[in-house]
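User: what does the whole thing look like in 3D?
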Amino acid sequence: MYPPRFRYEAPQTIDEAIQLLSEGGGDAKILAGGQSLIPLLKLRFASPPLLVDINEIPGLDHLDFAADGSIRIGALCRHAALERSEELRVRQPTMAAAAGLVADPIVRNRGTFVGSLCHADPQGDWAAVMVALGGSLVAQGPNGRRSIPVKDLVHGPFQNALTHNEIGVEATVPAPQGTPLGGYLKLERRIGDFATVAVAASVDIEGGAVSRAGIGLVAVGSKTMDASDAAASLVGGPLTPESISSAADLAAEVAKPRSDHRGSADYKKHIVRTFVTRILTRVSSSLEKAA
Amino acid sequence: MTSLFEEITPEASGDVPTRKITISINGEQRSANVEPRLLLAHLIRQGFKLTGTHTGCDTTNCGACTVLLDGEPVKSCTMLAVQANGHEVTTVEGLAGPSELHPIQEGFKDEHGLQCGFCTPGMMLTAKALLDRNPDPTEEDVRWALAGNLCRCTGYQNIVKAVLWAGDKLRGEADGGEES
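Assistant: Here's the predicted 3D structure for the full assembly of 471 residues, as structure tokens:
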């Protein structure tokens, strides 16, 4: 299959890229890892007249850990870099748990974290992780930079809040409020398939109690789902079998899955409940072991 | 599709914009004038006539088109040829020496790591990147690394054995192709 014809530009700076996007007037697409865009071009689901390849722009592939525990991920940081980062496992276990479950190992060598956020696929892994962590996307346009919380970035299936001449240049994960714990579980028929259901659950623990929590759900709605009530129910107390069970029920209520070839809606809700319980129970037992 | 390779036509035909790219492929510098929409897999197969790189599913699932880009496996059907400009590409043709097979190829032969052979070039290149990074992988490491390459014949068992065999051989532990 051949992609449709397009004008191809590979600018050397972000400013040039923004200029090109402005010229493109809403029809241009940014090419980063290309692991979703190129298949879409080949299948002719997309035929943008202009592709702005940002791979030649230096200084966008960073994965930086600040002293306060916050993390910055550049627009050209590939999934594989996150998967191989020893520091990520210590600093942010929820992200580390997801890094090796995105697509397949070969796709992870090209695909980018920020690209996955901007692509806004309801079955994408990273947006749910960022919803759970309270992370943001930094968008740069002609008028400078702005930070958009990922929970507000994703509007619907493949729709994001960026204007046509903004580029997601970086993602930021805020500093944890205590010890960052959590996990990511994904049910897929085989590696590389879209998720049947996946759950990202993150909790920061301070003095034995949950100081901050977040739960993001994958593939159970028309966009990444934020189980904010479930997460809020955990804050302020310790993780107990009762608090975990109640949060799992609340998360399952938020899920609005559809029955399809991957499973029935009831089954998918059941998986949400199971995954929330499983992640939080693992966190709770790791805390008991450490105590 | 207008395929504007140097081998076919030296110059672009007027209205179709092309770019001149230069790629180091298996250590040799090759140039081509290509349309930006040309996929790397098609440049390799039809432009450079290196048909060891296979296109299987053409939808980023199967990994038959896997090549190494600066040493890392990528699906060449999911990358534009222009994006490889200035980079090093290794295809299956770049594995063997002038007179002997690469240990990974030997391993696939010795352990019967293929039946129809369609997925094999991609499997071997993914295996090479694994063994370059992790010379002594466990079976689990091998299975994890090969998860993006699909095989419809073997059930993977002998492919995993072949990669472990090659790892042993490369570390100087193989013993004439005996079970390791």
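In plain terms: The interface with chain A takes residues 1, 16-17, 19, 35-39, 42, 58-61, 63, 66, 69, 72-75, 77-80, 82-83, 126, 144-149 of chain B (CB under 8 Å). The helical segments of chain B are 40-47, 103-110, 120-133, 139-145, 157-170.
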